[in-house]
Amino acid sequence: MRLGLKRRQLDLMAGGPPCQGFSINAPKRSSEDRRNHLFKEYLRFVEEFQPRAVLIENVPGLVSFDNGGTLSAILQSLEELDYHADVQILYAPHYGVPQTRWRTIVLALRDGEEPLSAFPQAIRHAPMRVNFTSKFGGRDIVAFAKAVELPMFTTVRDAIGDLPELANGEAGADVKPYPTAPTNDYQRALRAGSDGVHNHEAAKLGKINMERLSHIPAGGNWTDIPFDLLPAGMKKARRSDHTKRYGRVNPDGLASTILTKCDPHWGAYFHYSQKRAFTVREAARLQSFPDTYRFTGSRVDQYEQVGNAVPPLLAAAVGQSVSEALGVKRTTLRRVV
C-alpha cells in the first residue's frame, strides 16, 4: 500500500463522517442527503486497513435518524467486519469542557475485545438536560458520571474571565496581552506557551441587537426583551421555547453549544458582562482550544473552524481511554482536571 501500512497494523482509525445531515437542528433530515451515506465510505477504509480499533464521532441526532436505522447499519457493518461495537453519547462538561455539547461516539474493537472498556469515565460533575433521543436498542446510551466525589464543571467565567475586555465592534491589536495572571487551572493550561491573545476581535452588533442586549441580564434570554423589540418570528413563540436564543450567558454556568457562528439569534452568545457577542477566541476557549491554536481566514471562516470541531479535551479523554484499552504506550497529553 502507498502508506506503507499492512492490514491489521494500524492501532486506531478515528473519524467523523459529516454530521450536518443528522443534526436535529438541520432544516430537513432526509435519507436523500448524500452526506448521510458517507459513513459507508468510512467503513470501506475500515475494511481495507482492519485497524485494532475504530472510532466514529457524530451528533446525537444520529441515534434518531431514520428511526435508528443508520446507526444500526453502522454497528451491523462493523460486526460483519469482525469487530465488537458499541455506542455512547458523551457530555463534554464531564471532561472539563465549559459548554453543553453532546457527541455520539461509536467504538469498535477487534479480536473479541469489549468496546465498553474503551469509553472514558467522567472526571467532573455537571448539570445536564437531555433533549434528544437517548435510547437505542432498548437501553439508555447517555454516559452519566459514575463517581460520587468529582469536582464540579468548568464555568464560563473560569474559561474566558482572563481575556481582554472589548467594546462592540472593537478589533485592537492582532495579538493582545493578557490583562491579568491566570486565576485557575483551566486558564493556566490553555495559556501555556502562548505569546498573547489571538483571534480576539468583537464582531459589530447592529443597533437593534445592542438595544435588545441592554435588557438582558446575565443568565437571561429573549424573554427579557420588550415585545416591540423582538424579531417578528420570536413574537409568535411560546415563552418556554427557544430558551437559549438571545441569551446572555451565566458566568457561573455552562455555555450553550458553540455553533459555526456566534449569532445571538441562535444561542446564548452574548458576553455575560460586556456589551457584545463572543469573539472567536472566546468561542475557542469554550471549546477548550489552547491559546497557541490560531484560526485563519475571514472571521466567518474562523467561527466555522471552531464550531465544527470536537472539543480537544473531550477528544483527549476518548483518545486516552482507547489507548489504555489497547495497551498502547501513552504519549504525554495535557489534561485539565
Tell me the CATH topology of the largest domain: DNA Methylase, Chain A, domain 2
CATH-assigned homologous superfamily of the largest domain: DNA Methylase, subunit A, domain 2
Walk across the major sheet and give the strand order.
Answer: 1-2-4-3
Give unreliable regions as ranges.
19-30, 331-337
How many H/I helices? 9
Question: Which class do the helix and strand fractions yield?
Answer: alpha+beta
Name the overall outline.
Answer: globular
Please tell me the total number of domains.
2
Question: Radius of gyration, rounded?
Answer: 21 Å
Instruction: Give me the strand/helix succession.
Output: EHEHHEEEEHHHHHH
What does the secondary structure layout of this molecule look like, with pairings?
Elements: E1 12-15, H1 39-49, E2 53-58, H2 61-64, H3 69-80, E3 83-91, E4 102-110, E5 135-136, E6 139-140, H4 156-160, H5 185-191, H6 207-213, H7 280-287, H8 299-307, H9 312-326
Parallel strand pairs: 1-2
Antiparallel strand pairs: 2-4, 3-4, 5-6
Helix pairs in contact: 7-8
Annotation keywords:
disordered C terminus, four-stranded mixed sheet, alpha+beta, 6 strands, Rossmann fold, 2 domains, two-stranded antiparallel ribbon, DNA Methylase, Chain A, domain 2, 337 residues
How would you sum up this structure, described in words?
The chain is of the alpha+beta class and 337 residues long. The protein contains nine helices and six strands, in the order E-H-E-H-H-E-E-E-E-H-H-H-H-H-H. The chain has helices at 39-49, 61-64, 69-80, 156-160, 185-191, 207-213, 280-287, 299-307, 312-326; strands at residues 12-15, 53-58, 83-91, 102-110, 135-136, 139-140. Strands 1-2-4-3 form a four-stranded mixed sheet, with helices on both faces. A two-stranded antiparallel sheet has the order 5-6. Helix 7 packs parallel to helix 8. The protein is globular, with a radius of gyration of 21 Å. The model is unreliable at 19-30 and 331-337 (pLDDT under 50).
